[in-house]
Amino acid sequence: MDINSIRKDFPILNRNFIYLDSAATSQKPRQVIDAIRNYYENYNANVHRSIYSLASEATEIYESSRKNIADFIGARDNEIIFTRNTTEALNLLSYSLQSKLEKGDEVLLSRMEHHSNLLPWLRLESYGIKVKFIELDSEGNMDEEDFKSKLTKNVKIVSITHVSNVLGTINNIEFFGKMAKENGSLFVVDGAQSIPHLPFKINDYIDFLAFSGHKMLGPMGIGVLYGKYSLLEGLPPFMQGGEMVKSVSLERVIYEDPPVKFEAGTPNVEGAVGLSAAVDYLKKIGMDNIRKHEYELGKRALELAESNKLIEYYGPRDSRKRSGLISFNLKSKKYDRIVKDLQSKSIIAGKLIHSHDVAEFLGDKSVFARSGYHCAEPLFKYLGINGSVRFSWYLYNTIQEIEKAFESLGEINV
Amino acid sequence: MSNWDFINNYGDLRNWGKLDSADIKIEGAGTQCGDVINLYIKLENGIIKDAKFDGDACILSTISADIFLSKIIGMNIKDAVKISENSYLEEFPINVSPGRIGCVLLPLRTLKRSEYGKYC
Question: Is B71 helix (H, G, I), strand (E, B) or coil?
């Protein structure tokens, strides 16, 4: 993997900064930007409906993008629903599956879920559905024994994240998925942080999978819900309107077949085209190579975190169990003085420097990192910390950038 | 001066601590971040004679509380609550990003929430 040539593909990296927030959104290669431009300059028309040739070409491009993205995860094209993002994909699922649930049914999530895989399920509580949570062990792995004990017959849906956006944990979805299947539960995977980073193919135990295009080199505003075709056929649509119907009279509506049944209104064609180009780019580099590169960066990040006594980091201690990010907090250098005299006029009132302050310092040094709760506030309450700083990397980041970022942390003198 | 230099070099806090005899004791909390700042204000004939703060907050809120209290000591409380957010931000020694304006304004907003806020 030639990192220098990869970096040349990302125009924004010409600006002089270290971008370590790819878990929030990735940067885009020229190939993706060009694909979107090419679509608008040569093929733009509304899809699926009009008869003229340009519209057919646009439809062909939209549907071939769907096919390409399906191939990327080892699915069939009629199992790929385009959404805006992971959040919309999981909302779609929650609303559509609601019709299949009864009072007293249960949904099993984990303690490490992003709000996207939490709030759509919590809303079901007002309909008498109970939501339960798999506990975590001290290193931030899902507790398999706790999972087994909570996987009762009432659990109709198990929905967990493949990779934690805070802890970096790579969860053993094969274990959880197979157990869920044996129990007769539907198994849903939040792939927002895994599909961009890990080699992945759909397996029989996965019923639904959600992910976002913008975290995997694609544009914003395009995401995917994969669903097993047989299940999609039996679900009602989430939204109603244009495109998603075969026939409408005031007495009777016949919906389109999946996936179009779930794509009401004019779709985000440029988004699909851009995501397809992103998938081409990722395939060209190779997901195995990307994982290997990110693993090397992760190993170095963990070494640097371990060697800095002021850093308290979260998640597994073993790099093999982690994806491409590290969350941490920085302890104050003046902390010793504070505990000696709590009334002293000290600048820091707490043991850890607030993550926003650390991110502010880093930003001044052109190191761009995320801080705060990372849309997983209950996880932080569970961990008993008030947010964290997060470095997250991707195929375009270098070891030198990781080292520079940790070096910058050392220059904080508070 | 960069934000980095400003924060790294801000000296000891002048107004950190508690005032047991305070006439105004009020807790302010950041909406997004879980930060907490307590203001203690001692009044004499409506004039702020002394003011202290403590809590558990980010550096920016903490420094801002220190600067804010130094500014209002000696002022009439009714004038202090009238300080506008814009003028306070303009006076603040550094420009902060939009995401952190709430940190800088936390002490001012907290005071405005006190019983004297009605004079805003």
Answer: helix
Cβ-contact A94, A120 below 8 angstroms:
yes
pLDDT, residue A334, reads: 63
The CA distance from A234 to A257, in Å, is 10
- For residues A262-271, give the mean pLDDT: 97
| pLDDT tens digits for range A211-257 | 999 999 999 999 999 999 999 999 999 999 998 999 999 999 999 99
- CATH number (2.120.10.30, 3.90.1150.10, 3.40.50.1100, 3.30.450.20) of A286-410 reads 3.90.1150.10
Q: Which of A315, A319, A378, A328 is nearest to A358 (CA)?
A: A328
What residue spans define the domains of chain B?
3-115
Q: What is the DSSP letter of A349?
A: S
Catalytic residue among A375, A385, A399, A414: A375
Please report how many Cα atoms fall inside a 13 Å half-sphere around the Cα of residue A52, on the Cβ side.
Answer: 5
Tell me, what's the pLDDT at A200? 98
User: Which residues of chain A make contact with B63, given a CB cutoff of 8 A?
Assistant: 347
How far from chain centre, in Å, is Cα B33? 17
Specify the CATH number of the domain B3-115: 3.90.1010.10
Architecture of domain A30-285: 3-Layer(aba) Sandwich (3.40)
Q: What's the whole-model pTM score?
A: 0.90
- pLDDT greater than 60 at residue A344: no
Distances (CA, A) of A179 to A152, A163, A183, A186: 11, 18, 6, 10
Annotated domain spans of chain A? 30-285, 286-410
Q: Do A356 and B57 touch (CB under 8 A)?
A: no
Q: Do A354 and B12 touch (CB under 8 A)?
A: no
- Written as one letter, the residue type at A301 is A
Task: Answer whether B3 sits within 8 Å of A364, measured CB to CB.
Answer: yes
Share of chain A above pLDDT 70, in %: 96
A314, β-bridge pairs: A327
What ipTM describes this predicted complex? 0.77
